[in-house]
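Researcher: We're teaching a course module on how sequence relates to structure. For the next exercise, students receive a sequence and then see the predicted structure as tokens, so they can try to spot secondary structure elements on their own. Here is the exercise chain.
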Amino acid sequence: MAKQTEETFFGIDVSKNHLDLAQWGIEEVLRHDNDATGIATLVEIMSTKTAVTLIVVEASGGFEQVMVTELAAASLPIVVVNPTRVRNFARAKGQVAKTDKIDAQMIASFAQAVRPEVRTLKTQDQQLIKALVTRRRQLIDMQTAEKNRHTTVNPELRPRLEKHLDWLATELAEIEEDLNDWTNKNAQWREKRTSLESVPGVGQVTSFTLLAELPELGTLSRQKIAALVGLAPFNRDSGCSRGRRHIFGGRSDVRSVLYMAALSGIRYNPVLKAFYDRLIAKGKLPKVALTACMRKLLTILNAIVRDGSAWISA
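Model: And here is the predicted structure for the students to work with:
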């Protein structure tokens, strides 16, 4: 028997081949193929439901993207969450067993209990920019690995390695050209990019990554944007004990580029340099001071995008 409620919560467990749909309060789990036909059927089913409160799906390495896009296009309230959150929720409930059916039911239960906030999903253009940024990062990782092998590789194989390095350099240049073209085609992105890169320490890689990975920039408060990226320190206190504050979670790719930007900023950005020096003078560890500079830089960028302004040197 279904629970009588005015609200309905759904969880979808995604795998390469299947989509398992569970509704909170109902034991039955429906399975559909993770292809065009299965997704269309799922959209039709969900569209006929009345008062859909929330649909939750775990991030599944990209296997969920098409389905999420189609459900969002049908104006359904869907949110993608980190699988760790759902798994921790399952452990808290004492649920150790793990199958596709159990996972779908647990995601639905998570949706009803936690009710994660629905955010605007990336447009197709944003998804393309994200894919280009991700591919650029993959090429750089391959390039670094090949360069590290250069001195130890068998001399007979070195020409092959150098040939691959040349190909990677060409491919990387083409990816960066595509990123420039796509951001220049969109007037809003072009303005955002110009504003972002006006800040000393922020270059193309940082602006590309922020456009792709942090579309919320300029729409949230400084506290929320810091928490979203994973730059908000969390307390570790218990009783009379006061532990060190630590950052946790968030978007690691954004943090990586902010780290490099802040590293440059404490040398060339007068605001960040003065802030960093002040923290060091107070006895803060360099790593702690640099993390604080990352958070301050993010706050500056958030305000600049929000106001549609550019960097103004003090």
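Model: If you want an answer key for the exercise: The mean pLDDT is 87. The longest strand covers residues 8-14.
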